[in-house]
TrEMBL record:
Organism (species): Puia dinghuensis
Gene3D superfamilies per the UniProt record, alphabetical: 2.60.40.1930, TonB-dependent receptor, plug domain (2.170.130.10)
Protein name as catalogued: TonB-dependent receptor plug domain-containing protein
């Protein structure tokens, strides 16, 4: 009966409390003050892209833990992209990045994505290596959790310094009399293991030397007289395990239960009868499981957990392999480069691409990336040094070394005692459908609010565009609607429909549902405080770039002053370009799009709806009329469905169809894979803009007079990466080019009809060695990480 309850509660957790994990791809490894940090966040749940969360939070804090910037972005296609602009002066050599979803705030913050960002300090001397005294600590981890008298068990250990960097150690294990029991030495990155059979009442101590030969003494965990020891090894499509009990102990230690679970799903359960034996074992088939961390837990008959172990299952199925081909290569000054990304299969993929100055960016091939993060580090606690190293090949030694990581890092997503009692997590921040408009009326008896009351809200953006919403009455004093997307701050003018004077009788509060940030993050304790000799090359490069920027800045400033006094004849902008500047913003502005100017199209008013207007005007875009008069049409482009936007807010086809063509000023149609729209516009994007009626600010519109208003905070405005085109005569091309990120494309989207993506970019004035990094996933949850050097 107890075991059945355990099964049912695990199903409840899996169905109602899915766990998410985040990986963030940054454009490069090291930044200078004043630069932009570009990033792309990928959100997974278990082994699959997460379809759960809609809001992503990114925070940047300094060494003291003070949060200096916070951004919120909408999630689509299990990903989002954003940026942080660094100040001109950054104190210290690191900033700390933290990323999480709304849903993740309900659980252990240890599973947030966290990363220390290297910052080049102008005061650093690249010719002097900083020597920081290392303080070594040694920790011991009995396999399964406990040392048990009379039962042989494996003990793993891990030695590292105050910065989380591994330290190799060696020493001996002594019993309480000082007798040497055995020797031990590090196998890999300060980690190792040894078998031991402790005696009852014994206490064990490690006498060991660090890398400088300094001797230390560290006690091992206490020896228990009653308990269970579990051992496990992950092999070819199976996990072998053994469970042994102490000679002492009551009947609850003679009938045990072992379970194995992955991503909150129970994959194995067995009863272990130790009535007549002290040890038993078994085999867990893992060939049909996805690669990842598998947790084994042994329970007594009363469901008290007595042993736990995590192992890594590696079925080598987690990768897909796009190819990057250089169609044109030039590392000369401002040379043009063209590359083609070829995805061999027909599944949809969501990728991000960065091209940087390899000399300035440093070389950290084994640091955490999308593969190691989503398979290992996103599941375990603590610092794992160079986690991608364990996925750099298929040798048995790598699997053995990865098992040391499993033995020395904790995993505690479940609190078994609470689960057995039927307790579920308290959800303080339910996931929502993008932004909400939650309205509460305070100071009025809720029973005096009519059931059919509603709230009309006119949202006015900074670009003077407006949109009207009817907010329904939920219950009591609350009104609300979800699924909104807007950026920056907006003014909300509102009026109650039934009782127009309600707002003057009460206080009306608005809330978009965004989770408030913490006032401070944890101070940086693991950020490395000194540069090593290996760091000198890329530090020297960054110092040169910073010095060059300081040299040319006065020259550029003088050019600006000179240009301000010169009357310059420029190309006259087309009406379509003027409309684009007037209406489009953020990712929707500019770009390679089909643009239709309906203000100056005298025939536009003859069309019954905007879809009829667009039919036949865009190559490849298929618009199929709906059934019967007024039927909603269906759209497809290269096998995908275009995203639809009205004044840059996502809508459905029915809403666009009901928008009179006479109200439309401009239509922009972006090709599939353009990167425009949530998820990057994998099926293309159609953006409709309604007329504004001149440049008069909406905030002064007479129709707003007498209406109450509130200020609402929306998503952070995304910044567009600027990539110069040196084949064009552009005034921006006249200055010196010292960019270290040469190209950043957060959305590289492919599908069965669009498997090849061409990318063009230009070199700067100084780079002679490029680093290309491509990361992402496909719709099956398979991952890719490709890094190439071009010189």
């Amino acid at each position: 009966m107890h075991a059945q309850k355990l099964d049912s509660m695990m199903n409840v957790y899996a169905d109602h409390y899915p766990q998410e994990k985040v990986y963030v791809h940054f454009d490069k490894n090291l930044y200078n003050s004043g630069e932009t940090i570009w990033f792309k966040a990928y959100i997974f749940s278990g082994a699959d892209p997460s379809l759960y969360s809609k809001n992503f939070y990114a925070e940047l804090s300094d060494a003291s833990g003070a949060i200096i910037q916070r951004k919120v972005y909408p999630i689509s296609e299990s990903s989002t992209a954003g940026n942080f602009d660094l100040p001109k002066e950054v104190k210290g050599r690191h900033l700390h990045f933290r990323g999480y979803t709304t849903w993740m705030t309900n659980f252990d913050t240890a599973f947030y994505f966290e990363k220390d960002i290297r910052i080049y300090d102008k005061k650093d001397s690249v010719l002097t290596v900083t020597i920081v005294p290392r303080q070594t600590r040694l920790q011991f981890f009995p396999e399964g959790g406990d040392l048990v008298a009379g039962v042989e068990g494996m003990v793993a250990f891990k030695a590292d310094d105050q910065f989380g960097l591994p330290v190799n150690v060696k020493g001996t294990i002594q019993d309480k009399t000082g007798k040497e029991v055995m020797n031990f030495t590090s196998e890999h990155d300060g980690m190792g293991r040894f078998p031991v059979t402790p005696d009852k009442g014994d206490s064990l101590t490690a006498v060991w030397q660090d890398e400088k030969g300094i001797e230390h003494r560290t006690p091992l965990p206490a020896v228990k007289s009653i308990g269970v020891v579990m051992r496990a090894i992950s092999g070819n499509q199976k996990v072998l395990f053994s469970v042994a009990r102490s000679a002492e102990g009551g009947p609850e230690y003679k009938h045990l239960i072992i379970i194995a679970h992955m991503h909150q799903h129970l994959v194995y359960k067995a009863k272990i009868n130790l009535e007549d034996n002290f040890m038993s074992g078994g085999t867990i088939p893992t060939g049909q499981l996805p690669s990842g961390v598998l947790q084994l837990t042994v329970f007594r008959s009363d469901l008290m957990p007595v042993a736990e172990r995590v192992v890594f299952v590696n079925n080598h199925e987690y990768l897909f392999k796009p190819e990057i081909g250089m169609q044109m290569k030039s590392v000369t000054r401002r040379g043009k480069n063209s590359l083609m990304i070829d995805v061999p299969d027909t599944l949809r993929s969501n990728l991000s691409l960065s091209v940087t100055d390899a000399t300035a960016d440093g070389d950290f091939p084994d640091e955490d990336n999308i593969v190691s993060r989503l398979l290992v580090t996103g599941e375990l606690r603590g610092i794992i040094h160079d986690p991608y190293y364990y996925f750099s090949g298929t040798a048995d030694s790598l699997m053995s070394q990865l098992d040391l990581v499993m033995l020395t890092h904790g995993w505690r997503r479940f609190k078994w005692e609470s689960l057995v009692r039927g307790q579920v997590p308290v959800i303080k921040n339910p996931e929502q459908d993008y932004l909400s408009m939650r309205v509460e009326v305070l100071g009025v008896d809720p029973y005096k609010i009519a059931k059919d009351e509603s709230l009309n809200v006119i949202m006015s953006r900074k670009d003077s565009s407006t949109q009207m919403y009817s907010i329904p009455h939920i219950s009591g004093s609350k009104f609300g609607v979800t699924g909104l997307v807007f950026y920056d701050t907006v003014k909300a003018f509102y009026m109650f429909n039934v009782n127009h004077s309600l707002s003057s009788q009460a206080a009306v509060t608005f809330n978009t549902g965004l989770v408030p940030g913490m006032r401070a993050a944890k101070p940086l304790t693991n950020a490395f405080e000194g540069w090593t000799a290996e760091d000198s090359a890329y530090l020297r490069r960054n110092r040169y770039i910073v010095q060059e920027e300081a040299r040319v800045q006065p020259i550029e400033d003088q050019k600006v002053k000179t240009l301000a006094t010169v009357t310059k004849t420029a190309r006259v902008k087309t009406d379509a370009e003027k409309l684009d500047e007037k209406y489009a913003s953020g990712m929707f502005s500019g770009g390679d799009a089909y643009t239709f100017d309906l203000v100056n199209d005298n025939l536009a008013s003859a069309y019954p709806d905007i879809f009829t207007y667009l039919q036949g005007k865009v190559p490849g875009l298929q618009i199929t009329p709906g059934n019967g008069p007024g039927g909603t049409p269906s759209l497809s482009w290269r096998g995908g469905r275009p995203g639809l936007y009205l004044n840059e807010m996502q809508v459905d086809a029915q809403q666009l169809q009901s928008t009179p063509v006479t109200d439309v000023a401009m239509v922009k149609v972006f090709r599939p894979g353009s990167g425009v729209g949530f998820g990057g516009g994998s099926g293309g994007t159609i953006a409709i803009y309604t007329k504004k009626g001149g440049d008069e600010k909406r905030g002064n519109d007479p129709s707003f007079k007498g209406l109450d208003r509130a200020i609402l905070l929306g998503y952070s405005m995304p910044k567009e990466f600027y990539s110069p085109n040196y084949l064009e005569n552009d005034p921006r091309n006249e200055g010196e080019d010292l960019r270290t990120t040469l190209y950043w494309k957060p959305y590289v989207l492919t599908d069965k009809d669009n498997r090849h993506v061409n990318v063009d970019f230009f070199n700067n004035d100084i780079t002679r060695k490029l680093r290309i990094v491509l990361e992402g996933f496909n719709e099956d949850g398979k991952l890719t990480h490709i890094e190439q050097i071009v010189q």
